[in-house]
Amino acid sequence: VQLQASGGGLVQAGGSLRLSCAVSPSAVSIRKMGWYRQAPGKQRELVADITTSSSNTNYADSVKGRFIISRDNAKNTVYLQMNSLKPEDTAVYYCKADRTLIGYYWGQGTLVTVSS
Predict the structure, then answer these.
(1) What is the DSSP string of 84-100?
(2) Strand ranges (DSSP E) for 1-116?
(3) Could you read off the pLDDT of 49-90 as tens digits, one per residue?
(4) Average pLDDT of the chain?
């Protein structure tokens, strides 16, 4: 199982970016997918996650109201729409996929840089 993340880049404060993460092979059954981030010198933290069966979502307080996580189950892809970006959102963003009774997988990370 592989996760391919994309969509990072450089954006000015107040701007938007959309991250994507696709699981391959696409037929793999995934229970939950999420986005985490790690800023320099800090621990990796949960940004948002979403269950594939019920679409229940969970957000870090720091991104509530600004970020939206969504998924396309047919494509086994999760998205993170990031709006009103702040310099403190600068980090490497990783996607994660959880499989029931099997474990979890990480994507390779995509860098998001927000300039002030």
Answers:
(1) S--GGG-EEEEEEEEET
(2) 2-6, 9-12, 17-24, 32-38, 45-51, 57-59, 67-72, 77-82, 91-99, 103-106, 110-115
(3) 999 887 899 999 999 999 999 999 888 899 999 999 999 999
(4) 94
